[in-house]
Amino acid sequence: MLDIPATLMRGGTSKCWVFSRHELERIGAPVDDILVRLYGSPDERQIDGLGGGTSTTSKAVILSRSDRDDADIDYTFAQVGLTDGLVDWSSNCGNCSAAIAPYALHAGWILPRGDRTRVRIFNTNTNQLMIAEVPTPGGIFDESGDARIVGVPYAGLEVVLWFVDPAGRTTGRLLPTGLAAERIDGVPVTLVDAGAPVVIAEAEALGLTGLETPAEIDGRPELLRRIEGIRREAAVRMGLARTPEEARKAVPKVAMVSSDGPGGRVVGVTMMSMGKAHPALAITGSVALSMATATAGTVVHRIATPDDQGTVSLRTPSGVIVTRIGIQNGSPAVAITRTARRLADASVTLPVDQLPGHVPGLAEEALLVR
């Protein structure tokens, strides 16, 4: 067995294990193989690993200090599959992104600066620059906090997360197909890339009111198959896959939107993640939806637009999330407030002899250079 230092963090409505890139790379095995075995995949229960058996609790954050002039921390996100034994590196996780600044401050990678410390984070999956603002009153970092967000029952440390110039980070364009709206399988959709690639679909055209619970949606297998078919076709149109069969499981995500009534300012949203209805909302998805509300002709722009302060209200199964469109570093940016908490500092064990292509003595060599 090989011991690896790791920290369990809650970021927003997700949980993620945070690893040092250096600690993983020094093991000398492919990082995909390491993560799959650490998390106990493939197994939908992940009973022999760190994973929690859901898409929101099977996430990894890999960090290092950045050499970039515009960033303090380099951050790579990994979504570890439950049943397929695969690691998806194609997207960012906005909720997990909220854990990075508190982690860096706790670890001493970043020192508090004034009453609010800004930490510049570069996501390597999408080449996205984020700026996290954390309260450090009197230049002191206190991990406790009294901020609250929907989807989390307890208060936590407030983290304001700005996604700077988020449009086209994966495909090169806010609207990858050049169309504000189109149809897939008879359903009006908008294919948008901001924060992450997202398929915004009209809920009514899928036979939904927008008030269904995630469990009700997950209990309709024919609907799930239709949504998955739309998602895979969208991946091809967005240039993310050559064929529907080759579409990655995590990207793009699907957001089904509905209206709260005539003249309403709130967009009803149910997001799909890894084939199931998300209990809250992927933060990168909220960035995409926010940008789409400000883009004429999109499916969601027909429902609501940002108010005079640039705020957008998104009603999820867990409650209403508010985002704000603004400017950071002279570029368009979308902000959302999250909370975060450090749950545990740990030494996690890796059965190195169970890795594919294991070479005897690998663990011992890695231990010697610690």
Structure notes:
The protein is α+β, with helices and mostly antiparallel strands and 370 residues long. It folds into 2 domains: 2-166 and 339-347, Diaminopimelate Epimerase, Chain A, domain 1 (Roll); 182-325, Diaminopimelate Epimerase, Chain A, domain 1 (Roll). It is built from 8 helices and 17 strands. The longest helix is centred in the middle third of the chain and has 17 residues, at 221-237. The mean pLDDT is 93.
CATH C-level class of the largest domain is Alpha Beta
* Tally of DSSP helical segments: 8
Give the percentage of residues in beta strands: 25-35%
The total tally of domains equals 2
| Rg, Å, rounded | 20 Å
Q: What's the CATH architecture name of the largest domain?
A: Roll
Which structural category fits the helices and strands?
alpha+beta
Give me the count of strands: 17
Report helical residue fraction. Answer: 10-25%
Q: Gap between N and C termini, in Å?
A: 14 Å
CATH H-tier superfamily of the largest domain: Diaminopimelate Epimerase, Chain A, domain 1
| Main β-sheet, spatial strand arrangement | 1-2-3-4-6-7-8-17
Shape field:
globular
